[in-house]
Amino acid sequence: MKAVILAGGRGTRLAEETVVRPKPLVEVGGMPILWHIFKVYSSFGINDFIVCCGYKGYMIKEYFANYFLHTSDVTFHMDVGNHMEVHQRTTEPWKVTLIDTGDKTETGGRLGRVRSYLDDEPFCFTYGDGVADVDMTALIAQHRQQGLQATLTAVQPPGRYGALHLEDNLVANFQEKADGEQAWINGGFLVLEPSVCDLIHSDACLFEADVLAELARRGQLGAYRHHGFWQSMDTLRERNRLEDLWDSGQAPWKLWS
Hints:
- By secondary structure, the chain is of the alpha/beta class.
- The chain contains eight helices and 16 strands.
- It has helices at residues 15-18, 33-42, 57-65, 67-71, 107-113, 136-146, 207-217, 236-247, and strands at 2-7, 27-28, 31-32, 48-53, 73-77, 83-87, 95-100, 123-127, 130-132, 150-155, 163-167, 170-175, 185-186, 190-192, 221-225, 230-232.
- It is globular.
């Protein structure tokens, strides 16, 4: 199964970091948040990634082009031969496809731009700025069992987000503001059928407001209720919280050894 990651936004609420790099490259524990997301998926055997690049996307390409430099010890032989020796090279079982989806393309439009890189099978889809200890195996199993076009992961963080109104395991509608801390929101980590891309007709398409809202209207949007850890990284405070959890050795999303 492939996983598509949105990584093209400007991350204006995290301007302290994103003025110099795209938000998916902002580091937690010395590694980009995008790396952490890959590792979460990889823990469940999902290793084929399509990254929707936009703002400063060339930096994401440069990161993966030089991945072994970031994860290995090296010796530069500048005295004789001018070559590089790599020690204890760290490898990952990943296939990473980086697609330039435009600086100003909206979230739904970015997914539409990578449609040709997808198979005719369900795929995972998420945002490049959040982590969770979601059981991907259970999420995918529920998606297949319900037979809907899309299944999102519903989470319950303290509310400043728009909320989901759930009926059983279906999303009935969206609310602009959460009613309280027990409101469910879209936590990302979705499973989509390729037919979802048929709802995207332009770069201006918004994934939540246009695509997910239409799927909910049609009764085709399932909700996998996640009661564990979830945290987005929209602000410096949230980034620091993730850093503190990592430094403490108590990062709940670290599902790998």
